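Retro notes
What went well: the complex prediction finally ran end to end.
Inputs used:
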Amino acid sequence: MVIAGRANNALYVYALNKRAQQLGLHPGQPLANARAMIENLPVVPADEKADLTLLEGIADWCDRFTPLVSVDAPDGLLLDISGVAHLFGGEAAMLQHVREKIASQGFAVQAAIAGTSLAARALARYAGSTIAPSGADRAVIAPLPIAALDCGEDKLRALKRAGLKTIAQVAERGRAELTARLGMDFLTRLHVMLGAEEKPLTPRRPLPDLSAAHRFAEPIVTQDVISKSLHALSIALAEALERQGQGLRLLEAVFFRADGKVQRIAIRTGAPLRDPGIMLRLLNQRLDALADPVDPGFGFDLIRLEASIAEETHPAEASFDADENARWQIAYLADRLSARFGEHRVQRFVPQDTHIPEAQSIAVPAQDRDFDGVWTRKRRESDPPLRPLRMLEKPEEIHFVAASVPDGPPARFQWRQCSHDVVRAEGPERIALEWWRENPHKRLIPSSERLRRIKLKLLPDPVPPSRDYFRVETRAGLRFWVYREGQHLHNDLAPRWYLHGMFA
Amino acid sequence: MNKSEKLADLRHFLADYALPSDRPSVSLGCPAADAVLGGGLRRGAVHEVFANDWGASGFAACLAVMAAGSKPLFWIRPDYEALEYGALSATGLLELGGDPRNLFLLRAPNAADALSATADILACPHAGAVVLELCGAPRSLDLVASRRLTLLAEESGVTLFVLREGAAPEPSAAVTRWQVKSLASDPQDDDWGSPRFHARLTRHRLGNLGDFTMQWDSEHGIFHQAAAHSGAVVSAPADRPVETPLQRRA
């Protein structure tokens, strides 16, 4: 059986099983050729997206070995195991362990360890299960075939034509010669592969500042054991934070299931936290609130708590100051609510420097920290409130507006099928929309072109019309904030009226 | 068990439900209302505000601003509420004399969640006041829930205002219940537009009922007694009890 992929608008053999290999097919072969060779060849279309998802899944799972995992698409993973191998009994034992664990899930694995990721990659593909002794990458890599350089079809052909068969032969050639023929990139690649310095792996997710993990010999299933483990982990993490004088702002719990599934739960906190009791309560609250509960399936074999973002704690947080304590309690309350309902649902307000009414304050998650903006009141001392207590998210158009004078306030209007008689009104308060701020949705038209279009009436003026706001009181005692969009201009379009807010 | 024993037993049982009378209170600033309330609105208790127009929800906001003082004010509303009644505006609260820096808004997915969040906040004595805004008559707000909120408020001293919009009163454990309507400004007043309410105290577990006309003073954060309005005052409906609201149009 073969899997067919598409490249340059032609089908080719993307991957194949052993049997197909024995019949003389090979990856990269045009599918038509393969079909010509074998009658009734079963073909399955490739699903590269699913492959990548699977690879990402395995990468998540490999997080148990080291936090530095990076995906080497389409079929490789790179793990930086610097300073980790001793936890698994040395490099050889770790390699064995990783291979067995992945193979036990039904994958074919080739793995190798070397000083650089490129070298390890070449070894894994062309000399499986090799461990390059520290500092001796060159000796192990040199005998590999040139294909292991993985430098692209063109360069490979060029090397072949030059009669070079192994990496050692390539390395013997002069620098200038190689650069001239194959480019600088190739040379760098070659040197890295032979043991030169390389830039570090880009991890798939930011490294946690601190973490604590429990590895279980037997996968654990019962809720009881899981909560006990979480309890112990939060204490361990709290101690580590304590030693560093830090508190966490983002707590992540990672559950590694024995069958390879990894579940990650993140909880933000509003203030640096290092109380294990609170950590545990936030965690439990979140776990209870999950729509898709953490399912142990066949059991977890590793549970890890990470302080993904940790911050210095201020000494004041441990103080007995009543105010400070109150603020702390409120922050904790906001954390709990955010853990339960989602952080976007628990909000506070930040003032903005604009005079557009709906943009004057924005609601932000209560767990953000900067609420220092300056709030300025609109009204003066003896004024009534000049801004409504409630604002419609989108101003609603009002109809049948009768205004006593053309640019004056409405005398009567209809909104939501109810007619309102205006007895008092104050205004207009003209609020021009901020033409100097660029509207990202509207591409700027050169001003000469704009003028031309306006003259030809091809386009309404792209500057948004100003709004004339009126504070009105109806006969029934309701107070509204309404505005007229634009003015009675020379054109004979009737202005549109909107209701924007309700006063108390 | 004879009659007197039974009676004593019953008294004892009811004592559990009685409210201790030594709670601090918030003076409304309107002498008539304060007199009826025995000095002011009770802190650490549940108060219900029934409103059938937008303005009336401002009454709850004013009360909450007073009760919260410099402590955090939590405003909880289910998601759909903002569509019908408009979203609470921080600048509007500032104009009313509140402090937006102390305002927390919680958008709950539904009424049941709003109630449980309210319970969480009431359990925290460092909160100042909570406004729970509910539209219609959610099934989750029953006598048990209301009793539970009362106990929590009692314990922590946090004052809860349940703002009911377009709803008919039903049994609850609230200490006071207000039926509020916004009033037009005084025709003689040039600085018109201050919130002005006709607030009817229709239930009071600790005393008498009353009927007040109040005007909010945004500068001092307090109510003033307003002269009874010379214009049209809502007269009692002939065809239905006072407390039954008009059916809202969909």
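What we learned: Chain B has a mean pLDDT of 84.
What to try next: split runs per interface for comparison.
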